[in-house]
Design brief:
By secondary structure, the chain is an alpha/beta fold. 32% of the residues lie in helices and 29% in strands. Strands 1, 2, 3, 4, 5, 6, 7, 8, 9, 10, 11 and 12 form a 12-stranded mixed β-sheet that branches.
Length: 285
Amino acid sequence: LRWSKDVKSMNIIGLGQAGCNIADAMAQYPQYNIYKIDVGIEGKRCLNIKQQSGPEEYEANAPSMKTFFRNIKGDTLLVLGGSGNISAMSLRIMETIKDKCKVDLLYIKPDESLLTGKRQMHEKVTYNVLQNYARSGAINRMFLISNPQLENILGDVPIMGYFDKLNELIVSTMHMINVFKNSTPVLGGLREAGETRRICTVGIYDMEKDEEKMFFSLDTTRESCYIYSVGERRLREDGSLHKTIVTQMKGKTNDETPNVSFGVFPTNYETDYGYVIAYSPNIQN
């Protein structure tokens, strides 16, 4: 399974420590151009930001980024953690690149019980403001990820390397979904979500158990897209697989989620696996 040669590379912009850590992990794949913005950062395509006392100061004192983003174009994913003060620069970043890029946003929502005072208030404001930007169309898609839900999926996660484990799950999932979106299925197709369904999340789909583990619990889901990654041998020999998949997809369609699409992709792996993308038109509480 390979990324289509006809598809241009994608930009990843990491903002703040959480965003930059995920951008670093995405850098292992050749399909991405990595940009990082944080305090005290150095290196290629890195923008060092002077430390500020709070989110309002980061937004008000954000430097011009026209030179930093002078060569950027095409599909872009902006990654940030909602509780970081530097996340207040996100609107300035999008304003700078809006005429050159189609921008998706990956929002990492922290464990709110661990936030206090101004951090909790800042995260809440950032969370709602960015969702409103997505609903207005200023952001193409806003992917919501919940750290507590990632931990539930992974099970017991040691303190040392805790965020590395969570980031590995995020990065591997987002990358493989990008690969499948740029590949040709042997059955079905990954339909583009409706224009108004810009708030979304992703998850892991166990096709054998017909079980999905979402990275964020959407209040409402109006559209879902399922990805089946199946070994070529099974695709050639399992005569019941087509019926199984069709039956599963019919079971996913209901009044709350009227639009369901799927794609089946061949792989050389021995283990079959899947992913799901869920979309909502509503701002999440």
